[in-house]
Amino acid sequence: MAATSAQPMASLPSGLGICTTAPDIFYLPELIFGGLVWILVASTHILPPNPLAWVMFVSVFCFVMTFLWLVIFACGGHRNSYGWAAADFIYHFLAVIFYLSAGVALAYITFINEKTLMLRIYKIDISAVVFAFATTLLYFIHALMSAIRWKNF
Predict the structure, then answer these.
(1) Residue 108, Cα to own-chain centre: how many angstroms?
(2) Would you state the pLDDT for residue 85?
(3) Read out DSSP for 107-148?
(4) pLDDT tens for each residue of 33-57
(5) What is the domain count for the chain?
(6) Model-level pTM?
(7) CB 132 within 8 A of CB 102
(8) Residue ranges of the alpha helices (H) in the chain?
(9) Residue 57 within any structural domain of the chain
(10) Angle 31-65-135 (CA atoms, 0-180°, nearest 5)?
(11) Is residue 120 part of a domain?
(12) What sign does the CA torsion over 70, 73, 76, 77 have?
């Protein structure tokens, strides 16, 4: 006689459950750190503006999308489906790639302009670099945990 062991299906949280589950607890820190990157980059003016435009795009895009993702999960709009678990992983993996590229570009521009910037602006840019890489780490951890949840779904 063959024994079947059914694994319990993982579920996507909704409501206040997003404040207690492992990957979803990172939504608020991602919003806070991403918002800080956005504010810090917006408060300085250095040349060339093109890489900073990419950093601003990434920080604003990820901030808005993470907020929408948080609202969708909090309101239960995902209906606990397999597709939402996959989309959660894909979005957070894309955010990791975006933030990593933005953090590297920001660090490079800050390094290049080290001698030409005033000390106050240089400190703000260094802070933006640190928060960009911290946000990258948060999105990376969230993506890994989302991948595990997707696999177990």
Answers:
(1) 21
(2) 81
(3) HHHHHHTTTTS-HHHHHHHHHHHHHHHHHHHHHHHHHHHHHH
(4) 999 999 999 998 766 677 888 999 9
(5) 1
(6) 0.85
(7) yes
(8) 27-42, 49-75, 82-112, 119-152
(9) yes
(10) 35
(11) yes
(12) positive
